[in-house]
């Protein structure tokens, strides 16, 4: 992995991914909305930026050219199929060999085997109804985006994040294939570690064509149910699926 592209690089998750990617020595290109270019001033000399909406196929085509990996923030904004348009552009235009990694939330299910709490179901329902009513957020389009990814023959990883908090990195999150597994019960991860997991997914063969649901490695549920995967001498958690 030498050159990667971050689609949605100016957001909070995008900027954390940028930091982690540069720390690994990757050459980084990125796409962000023109009005957000200034958020990247700090890194201006170290990245190649392609201003544009993340579903703009002409911009995405230029940005992903020659990239071995593409990290995409799937954001369910507006009512113009932004997330599915973004995902489709990456699926169609990334190099054939590229590893493609997408972000979303626990509400996305790949095989229908996730078990959701009433609280999460209620929140997702409310965001769906209110978000569409005010025409600001379209979670159904994020679901459609992921359906297209799962149906593709791409080398993908869809990383499903839980509740997010800011703060210093605690290490690589622990993951499980299904929401509802006890290891995920704490439902909290640092945003920087969500980003760390996205970057890690570029090179971990165990995450190919998977939709890992993640939780912070230092949370109570991770410590209780995946002790072997948490906190090693190098300060990073060892990646692994939780016991079924
Ligand atoms: N927030 C949560 O609690 C949570 C929980 C679980 C999973 N996730 C997932 O984490 C990922 C990142 O979410 P985040 O909440 O941390 O946000 P974020 O990283 O700040 O990313 C938001 C992205 O949306 C773009 N954006 C903002 N307003 C927009 C608009 N009106 N039209 C088009 N694009 C717009 C931002 O670009 P600009 O820089 O141009 O504004 C940025 O690229 C998403 O995939 C989300 O599904 C979030």
TrEMBL record:
Name a Pfam family for this protein: NAD_binding_10
Ranges annotated as spanning the membrane: none
For the NAD(P)-binding domain, which residue ranges apply? Answer: 8-205
MF GO annotations: biliverdin reductase [NAD(P)H] activity; riboflavin reductase (NADPH) activity
Q: What is this protein called?
A: NAD(P)H-binding protein
What organism does this protein naturally occur in?
A: Oceanomicrobium pacificus
């Amino acid at each position: 992995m030498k050159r990667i592209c971050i689609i949605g690089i100016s957001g909070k998750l995008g900027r954390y991914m940028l930091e982690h990617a540069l720390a690994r020595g990757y050459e980084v290109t990125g796409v962000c909305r023109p009005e957000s270019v200034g958020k990247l001033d700090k890194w201006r000399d170290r990245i190649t930026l392609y201003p544009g909406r993340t579903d703009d196929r002409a911009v995405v085509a230029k940005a992903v050219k020659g990239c071995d990996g593409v990290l995409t923030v799937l954001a369910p904004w507006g009512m113009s199929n932004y997330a599915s348009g973004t995902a489709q552009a990456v699926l169609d235009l990334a190099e054939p060999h590229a590893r493609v990694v997408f972000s979303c939330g626990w509400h996305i299910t790949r095989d229908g085997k996730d078990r959701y709490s009433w609280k999460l179901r209620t929140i997702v329902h409310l965001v769906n109804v209110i978000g569409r009513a005010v025409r600001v957020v379209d979670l159904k389009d994020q679901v459609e985006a992921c359906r297209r990814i799962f149906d593709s023959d791409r080398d993908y990883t869809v990383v499903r994040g839980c509740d997010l908090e800011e703060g210093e990195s605690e290490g690589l999150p622990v993951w499980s294939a299904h929401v509802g597994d006890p290891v995920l019960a704490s439902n909290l991860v640092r945003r920087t570690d969500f980003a760390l997991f996205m970057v890690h997914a570029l090179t971990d063969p165990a995450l190919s064509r998977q939709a890992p649901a993640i939780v912070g490695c230092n949370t109570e549920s991770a410590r209780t149910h995946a002790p072997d995967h948490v906190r090693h001498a190098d300060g990073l958690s060892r990646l692994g699926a939780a016991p079924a």
